[in-house]
Specification:
377 residues, two-stranded antiparallel ribbon
Length: 377
């Protein structure tokens, strides 16, 4: 199979941009990625667009705006993992020899407030089983019971990520906070306070993939996997409402991580830097365990040791994560790829992880989709 490299990256900042359309944000990210890759608007054979709320033929609108239509354009939706799904499809096509170069981009202009999704039946929303703060809180409560996580640990995740976000010019929130301030923010649903939840917002990200020459020294896409939930738990993330409180059904994240590690021929101990899903503070800690960064039940211990902070043995979310950047769903996974590519290039500025050579990106969409991306030098 042909090796695949990250030839170019582009990013429209994450935040709120009144008067700017989702297409305009997508165009900005795509143009940056093409320029970074040194290719023109006709320099790729296929395009894959990850988005959930941008409407029909969203990718077509972006490429039409720059005169780059004519080839296959595929829109992909997998919730927060949409960009990861699009990346997997593009990488697979290049590895199989179907294309030499492919464009992958994602963008979103999220409605304000709690995210609504047609994935959930009305009764599920009414019961609190949809992707809402109530559901996240149930997940957090189970993590607290099983892994010794406290509300102080949850606050510490926010402090860590917001401190990293200070150095990210593309993040929505760039102000350092204290644990006391986090815990003083409004309680949304026990144990989650307002500042422990990420903000749905707007933005775009793009990546140019191409077949890697044997002598290439660029960033390689060593592994990429998308996996869906197994039957058993509500959205594959067990809560007291799932009906299987003591089950051993592996989460979609664990399945995706195992597949990506196997493809890359690597394991968790090989990682130098991680960008993972932190829809809420508890979700990051749960990701530590599901990705194999620590044994089950040790998420709080890993955080307490300082291992996941800047300067630790495995920095997590040096970009500031979703808690600093906010989350435009379609751009989320690809935004991580942009950040991790910068890290491996040594171009992350004040948030640079020293000697980073192996990186992992992780997103979870509605609990029903999980993507894991592994990049190497």
């Amino acid at each position: 199979m042909t090796a695949v490299e990250i030839a170019g990256i582009g990013l429209h900042p994450f935040g709120r941009f009144e008067g700017k359309t989702v297409t305009e944000m997508g165009v900005a990210a795509v143009r940056q990625a093409l320029a970074d890759a040194g290719v023109d608007r006709r320099g790729f054979q296929a395009a894959f667009c990850g988005t959930a709320y941008s409407g029909v033929a969203a990718g077509h609108r972006v490429l039409d705006a720059i005169g780059a239509t004519g080839g296959p354009i595929v829109d992909v939706e997998a919730g927060c993992a949409s960009g990861g799904a699009a990346l997997m499809m593009a990488a697979g096509a290049i590895a199989a020899g179907q294309y030499d170069t492919a464009l992958v981009f994602g963008m979103e202009k999220m409605p304000k407030g709690i995210i609504r999704s047609s994935f959930f039946a009305p009764w599920q929303e009414e019961a609190g089983l949809a992707a809402t703060p109530a559901y996240f809180a149930l997940r957090a409560q189970r993590l607290m019971r099983e892994s010794g996580v406290t509300r102080n640990h949850l606050a510490d995740v926010v402090v860590k990520n917001r401190a990293n976000g200070v150095h990210n010019p593309d993040a929505m929130f760039r102000k350092q906070v204290t644990a006391d301030e986090v815990l003083a923010s409004r309680l949304v649903c026990e144990p989650l306070h307002l500042w422990m939840l990420c903000s749905p917002n707007e933005g775009a990200a793009a990546v140019v993939l191409r077949a890697a020459p044997d002598s290439g020294r660029g960033v390689r896409l060593a592994g990429v996997a998308l996996r869906s939930h197994l039957q058993g738990n509500v959205l594959s993330e067990a809560t007291p409402m799932s009906g299987l409180v003591d089950d051993d059904v592996p989460a979609a994240t664990t399945l995706a991580a195992q597949a990506a590690f196997d493809e890359a021929g690597l394991g968790p101990s090989d990682l130098d830097v991680v960008e993972c899903q932190d829809t809420d503070a508890a979700r990051e800690l749960l990701s530590y365990e599901e990705l194999g960064l620590c044994p089950g039940g040790d998420a709080a211990k890993l955080l307490e040791e300082g291992a996941t902070g800047m300067g630790g043995r495995l920095p997590v979310n040096p970009s500031g994560g979703l808690l600093s950047k906010g989350e435009p769903l379609g751009a989320s996974a690809l935004g991580q790829v942009v950040e991790l590519t910068r890290q491996l290039r040594g171009a992350a500025g004040a948030r640079q992880v020293e000697e980073a050579r192996v990186a992992l990106g992780h997103t979870v969409g509605r609990g029903a989709n999980a993507s894991v991306v592994i990049l190497t030098l």
